[in-house]
Each structure stands twice: as structure tokens, then as C-alpha cells.
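Thread: "does anyone have the structure for this chain?"

Original post by V.I.:
We have the sequence but no experimental structure in hand. Need at least a predicted one for the grant figures.
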Amino acid sequence: MGTAQDAGYPQINCEKQCCNAYYEGTEKKKLISCIGLVDIKTKQKWLFDATPDICEQTQILKEQHLDNQKVIDGVFLTHAHIGHYTGLMNFGREALGGNAIPVYAMPKMKTFIETNGPWSQLVQLNNIELKPLKNDSTLRINKALKVTPMLVPHRDEYSETVGYKIEGKNKKALFIPDIDKWQKWNRNIIEEVKKVDYAFVDASFFRDGELDRDMSKIPHPFTTETTTLFENETLETKNKIHFIHFNHTNPTLQEKHHLKDSIQNLGFRFAKEGDNFDL
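Reply from O.Q.:
Generated one for you, C-alpha cells below.
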């Protein structure tokens, strides 16, 4: 449903060539990272994260995948950074005026929404209904689909951060749009990728030095770090990795770039809007 980092592409006040390419017409706008989950048989659909682009993303779900007369059957939140939950505002009084839309959240995330305006108003007016999640506790959302939140290390100023394992009848997916560094996680990312069929993982920055500021203050696994970590793994394992959550400065956000080609030649993949995966 989207592949860009929290601030989207193009990014505000960016005068670099990476964003000028959009204004010059050589690159397309990129929506903020998010995935949709659709069960055609039960006529249900969910979003993983409520991004600032939620209006477009829910419309895409409706027009291209499932129109069940609902905006959404539920939203699973990863954490309280701007690209991942602020789309909830569109469920409120000034916009949709939603009615008890299920929003799944971890304890700190749930408390953050309940105790801070304007988000708390969504709860007070019953625009959303918060559904508690527990780390490593699997939630069956229907007969065919299961969702498991997994805590990951990140800059948790306002809430904890999770990734999700999503299980269908036949296949499994891993969704980790944000994490500090793989080595900080209490799990082995290589082993976690091997357990699933698709892994949508954080690739905010391509390499160190990409920004004109101290990048250790905004840690993410560089694309080059992830590819190095998996360099001795099989092609089958590498093929499972689909990079997402690209900062506007990341050259692999572009439709075509030689660095992107070099990574794809190694067996890794780059997610793009419109991709579909069966579970």
C-alpha cells in the first residue's frame, strides 16, 4: 500500500535532486509504508499502520481489492511515530466520524492514544475501539488468518514498537517497517526470515552518510547492512526479503537506479505499490 518512510516522497522542503525528480516529472509520488490484508472469502480487510496517506490507501483497497461497504475492518498499529498512527485522525469528528473501528495496539500505544488529545477524542466519541495486543501472543482474526505482534528495539519515545507475523492458511509474512539495528533485536532476523514466505523489512537508508546529520541518532538497518548479513544465505532466503520504508534520500526509492539493480541482482527484492502476495 506504500513504501516510503514516515514523511513520504517527496518530502517537505527537500530541494535535493531526489525530490526534484518528482517535481520534474521523472519520479512518481510514493505513499507511506503500509500493508493491507484482505480475505476475499469472508469479505474482510485490514491495514497494518494508519499512515498520513490512509485516505488514498483505503480507497485503493476498496477499488482494487474489496468493497465490503466498510472503510476498514480494523487497523494494526506498530508504534507512535508520525507515519504509523496519525492517519487515525481521519476516523474522527472532523472527517469520517467513524463508528467503533477496531484499532489493535500494544499496551503503551493504547495508553498513549487514550491519554493524549486529539487521539483520546477518537476513543471518547467511539470513533475507534481500541483492542489490546500482547507481545508474542497470537490473535486469530478469522478462521484463516492469524496475527502475532513482536516487540522490536526502536526509538520508543511514546510507545513500544512491534513488527507483525501474519499467517494465512498456506503462507506467512513478516512486517517490520521500523527497527534500530538487527543485532539489537532479541531474535535472529535470518532465522525469522527463514520461518516465513515474505519478509517486508526496514530499509529506510541505503548506507551511512546518506544524511547531513548524525545518523546514529536515527538508527535503522542500512540496506547494505541487511544484504551483508544475508550474503551467505541461499537465493531462496534472499528472495523472501522485500525492502520497504525508504527515506526520500534512499536511491532505491527511485524507479530505476544502478544501486537498486545491484541489490536485486543479489536476489533481494524491493516492494512497490500494487504488489500482491497470497497467504
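V.I.: this helps a lot. Residues 54-64 form the longest helix (11 residues).
O.Q.: and The chain has nine helices and twelve strands.
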